[in-house]
Amino acid sequence: MKLGPTPQNTWDVTPAEVSLIRPVLLPQPASVPAKPQNIVLDVARTGLVVVDMQNDFCSKGGWFAEKGADVSVPHRIVPTLQKLLVAFRAASAPVFWLNWGNRPDNADLPPSLLHAGKPRGTGPGYGDMLPSGRGPVLVRGSQGAAVIDTLKAEPSDIFVDKTRFDGFIDNEFDSILRNRNITTLAFTGVNTDRCVFATLIHASFLGYDCILVEDACETSSPAHCTEAIMFLVHLLYGFTVNSGDLIKGLTENSKVRQAQAS
User: Which domain holds residue 200?
Assistant: First the structure.
């Protein structure tokens, strides 16, 4: 029988023998224009990461809206994300939803993070009930921590809760990726200069190939913040691409695979 967490990471086990040879994944190349250089993806080892597209950050009545943030900003990328979701699923490439989700008691949050959520010590912060009664803020399983209605998850998608700006700290994200033999990550979501960038940097430190999808990320910060992130990604951490070019590469790869299968 086969034992393993995913088809990509299994042993073959019999009463007499255990084979430690993992399945071989044939490369699925997709050429994509990128900066600072063009890239060739292996679609079989690439995943889409959607960061923090959830109600408390993006919806009216959510935490950020209560704090006065313009929640129309993250909705600018929704049509692009919808297209990317379709393209990745059609290419049989996994989708990872990386959503902020605290423990109800905040037992996993340090004072420095609680201060970032409540810098003056007043008003609702992580885990607190909002004045509107819509809360508690970003508690896992709550309405505020759920994906916005205009983006639909599929049963094959994978959800990972995070409790930091960096989506790899204190959770299982790295183990999930390695068990699926994912080596390349395409980052999308909000905010470009906060959780998206922090997660991308850590992914780079862990050895993943990092791609920032320029028009599928958004932030309420000034434009120079995004410019700085693009500069740093090009200089140190990976590549940036346009969603249309990425989708075209995935689509062409899917056509080749379909032709090979027929």
Answer: 27-261
pTM for the full model?
0.96
CATH assignment of the domain containing 61: 3.40.50.850
Q: How many domains does the chain have?
A: 1
Question: Would you call 78 helix, strand, or coil by DSSP?
Answer: helix
Closest CA to 168 of 66, 49, 80: 49
Q: Give the model confidence (pLDDT) of 96-119 as tens digits.
A: 999 999 999 999 999 999 999 999
Scanning the chain, the segments in alpha helix (DSSP H) are 55-58, 63-66, 72-75, 78-90, 111-117, 173-179, 197-206, 223-232, 243-261
The owner of tokens 């410019």 is 227
Quote the CA–CA distance of 91 and 243 in Å, as a whole number: 15
Residue 7 lies in a domain: no
